[in-house]
Amino acid sequence: MDFSIKAFDTKNTLAAAKTGCVAVAVFENKKLSAAAQALDVNGAITAALKSGDISGKPGSTLLLRGVAGVAAARVLLVGMGADDSLTEKNYSSAVSAALKVFATLGSQDAIIAFPLGEVKERDAAWALRTTVIAANEAEFRTDAQKSKKEAAPGGVRKIVIAAPEAGQLKTALAQSIAIANGMNLTKELGNLSPNVCTPTYLADTARKLAGEFGFQVEILERKQLEALKMGSFLSVAKGSDEPPKFIVLKHNGGKSKDAPVVLVGKGITFDTGGISLKPGPNMDEMKYDMCGAGSVLGTFRAIGEMGLKLNVIGIVPACENMPSGRASKPGDIVTSMSGLTIEILNTDAEGRLILCDALTYAERFKPAAVIDVATLTGACIVALGHHTSGLFTRHDAAHDALAEELLDAGRQTGDVAWRLPIGEQYNEQLKSNFADLANIGTPGGASITAACFLENFTRKYTWAHLDIAGTAWKSGAAKGATGRPVPLLTTFLMNRV
Ligand code: BES
Ligand code: MN
Ligand code: ZN
Q: 397 CB contacts (<8 Å, ≥6 apart)?
């Protein structure tokens, strides 16, 4: 989709704009938005509302052709609910309704002239971003590995968004497009089959991004990881024939002295469970166990494209979790880079085993904050379902503030998270008779004990953990990666500038 913004005024009127379709808002109680009024030159829109053909309820639509006095071939009336309180939800439903109609039109260009600045508690930049992300979502295809590509999406390919002050919103538009492009990368990586999207493929992707956007990149190989004593990460990697890769990306957008934000993404490119083998049904979905890594790479794509003025470091420990003669066994004890020993009671709790060494590695950057992102626990889906990511941090003033920043970035972008507790009581569950820590807890609160395990490796900096097991991809007929939490992470970083 091609996006641009344009300001219409008394000289440059919306009614005179030549395009395939102009979408304008109408409200319940037969009220017209300002843009609808601007097109109501000969009363055709008032008449359409009077006729009762459109209710004005959120997402209701009516397509009019050849409206007298309007240069556009079509006018699409879109309902936005009550005119005196335009909610986020009503605005979003109106956008998806308009996009659905756009996809069926015999014309390639359209104008969206919605009341961007009138959404309650949100600004025009919010409305712009919501529109761009939804339109990008609508045209995303999952046919990268099909021999015959699906027909190119029909309908509208070029959207002009009417904005009151086009100048000011130019940056917001560029940022929205960058987020959408970042989400697309995250989705593409997630959807790729696990024989293609290997640790090596993720490393190559990071190198390509670095070339394109000027990041520094370093890929640590097994030998170097051994020298760093990453015994926990390597214990997961050793069951597989695919070589592990430890990816470090640096975006130096801030002042050289400014402490960086570090993003750490779980990059298990396939999780069989290892010797604690997973059951067969739906195991294919464990190709999505690198979505934390994918979202770090997607976020880098977004901040690279927008040239974000902040220092950000991305760390991705990437490997497969496979059963084999060389794989870890339940009961094995390994020594992590931190020096803490870990009893591997379940080889399927491998995410925390690769993340703990990455979190220790992050110390060297003296970070302002470290956020790890992982499809870490099935229990997170039980707790929060598929709409909300789990957020975990310690409970003190600095971490409460970081949690609020992340939750707020999620709310701003509809990429929501919810905070769950961690603490000493839960740490009890991770005690081992034979090592410093066990890699699973006693039953109950498995997402929390997983977060508590990670917490042990993050005591030297401010840290938060996002469990995206329920939100990174969709199952069923619409199976596919969602691109989350790229909007949350990118917005969090943007808010820090
Ligand atoms: N990658 C999985 C978590 C997962 C499972 C995410 C299903 C999304 C859907 C993780 O490595 C795992 O297997 N976790 C175990 C932990 C358990 C052994 C304590 C789980 O959740 O069952
Ligand atoms: Mn697992
Ligand atoms: Zn896993």
A: none
Tell me, yes or no, whether 225 and 123 share the same domain.
Answer: no
Could you give the angle at the alpha carbon of 97 between the alpha carbons of 93 and 103, nearest 5°?
145
Over 90: is that where the pLDDT of 90 sits?
A: yes
Domain assignment present for residue 46? The answer is: yes
- Is residue 196 domain-resident? yes
**What range does the domain containing 21 cover?**
2-164
Shared-domain flag, residues 9 and 82 = yes
Same domain for 133 and 187, yes or no, is no
Nearest-CA residue for ligand 1 atom 5 is 378
394 part of the active site: no
**CA 90 to centroid of ligand 3, rounded, Å:** 37
Q: Specify the pLDDT at position 43.
A: 96
Name the active-site residue from 31, 222, 278, 474.
278
Is any ligand 1 atom within 6 A of the Cβ of residue 95? Answer: no
User: Which of ligand 1's atoms lies nearest the C-alpha of 446?
Assistant: 19
* 315/397 same-domain check: yes
Alpha helices (H) in 214-316, listed in sequence order: 222-227, 231-237, 291-306
Say yes or no to pLDDT of 152 above 80.
no
Distance 267 CA to ligand 3 centre (A): 9
Same domain, 477 and 360: yes
- Give the count of beta carbons closer than 10 Å to the beta carbon of residue 229: 15
Catalytic residue flag (residue 352): yes
The atom of ligand 1 lying closest to the CA of 276 is: 18
Cis peptide leading into 243, omega within 30 of 0? no
Please indicate, yes or no, if residue 169 is contained in any of the structural domains: no
Q: Is the CB of 440 under 6 A from ligand 1?
A: yes
What digits encode the pLDDT tens for the residues 348-371? Answer: 999 999 999 999 999 999 999 999
The structural domain count of the chain equals 2
Q: Return the percentage of the chain with pLDDT > 90, whole number.
A: 97
Q: Whose CA is nearest to atom 14 of ligand 1?
A: 377
- Residues 75 and 109 occupy one common structural domain: yes
Q: Is the CB of 378 under 6 A from ligand 1?
A: yes
Pure H helices in 199-264: 199-213, 222-227, 231-237
> Is ligand 1 within 6 A of the CB of residue 289?
yes
Q: Which of 398, 406, 210, 387 is nearest to 300 (CA)?
A: 210
CA atoms within 13 A on the CB side of 270: 22
Q: What pLDDT is recorded for position 271?
A: 99
Give the tens place of pLDDT for each residue, 397-446. Answer: 999 999 999 999 999 999 999 999 999 999 999 999 999 999 999 999 99
